[in-house]
Specification:
By secondary structure, this protein is of the alpha+beta class. The protein folds into two domains: 99 residues; 127 residues, Macroglobulin (MG2) domain (Immunoglobulin-like). The protein is built from five helices and eleven strands. A five-stranded mixed β-sheet has the order 3-11-10-5-8, with no helix packed on it. Strand 6 and strand 7 form a beta hairpin.
Length: 311
Amino acid sequence: MSNHQYKVSNPNSGQFPQKNNNRILKIGIGLFLIIIVIFIYFIQNEKQQNLLKEKTLTIAFLQLDSISNELDERILTISKLGGDIDTLVEIKRKLEEEKIYFLNKDRRQKIRLNTLQDKVEGYRELLLIKDEEINQLTHINEQLTNENIELKNETKVLNKSINDIRSEKNNLNQKVKLLSKLKIKDFQIDAIDAKGKKRSSSFRKRHIKQLQISFILSENEVAPIEGKKLWIRVVAPDNNVYYDVNMGSGSFIFLGRELFYTAKKEILYDRSQQRIVVYYEKSMPYLIGPHNVEVYTDDYLIGSGSFIVKS
């Protein structure tokens, strides 16, 4: 009997590659869908963040608008009661300018929420102060309405009290203005030569290619958050200020008179300690002798330093 080999064929063997291809296709589609979902999630999240910021800014603007209307009411009431409204009118004008600035879409996106909220809180505190003033004025006017001969002497006393309050208020404003002034520490003047080497305080004039003036503005929680212009005056031994328009020099008004400055620096003061560095490159040689460096802002001298130029 002869031996015959029989090969049994599997009818499903040809389907394995097909099944693998289908599985890979499903996995690929699944990954693609996951990526799409993640992409959509990030887009939606960014939109939500933008919408949330816009909503918060809109609420803050509505609060400013509401405060503006309340200021109108306070101005009218205080005016009828015979009080001083000049300060309130000026504050109202600035508030309207802020509202116009806020309505500009591009500018609005640059507004910091915490700064805007601080402003809103500041205006609300002002309204509370004015409410107290209205209460005082109302009380005084009621007494004046019902006054008689016997109360005239008491009215004089009350008027004196009002003057005392105003005097105390003026004194307080002066104290706040004094406390809000910026202060400088760690004043340093260095000379940088053509090779980049730095020398401090005292140096030969041939070593001065560029002056580096640096100092630290101290932290001040009372000072307003605002842009500041710093005017730097480098005063030579002959008391003349180094001045070169091509190097950024100019002039500013200080206590009613024009002063020339050597260099200018504009900063945003946010109440925190800040290190300021100013570079000045003079086209002509420096004079021999002691020099002073003065830094001004607004209507006062912040601080000063000195250096010596040797031959």
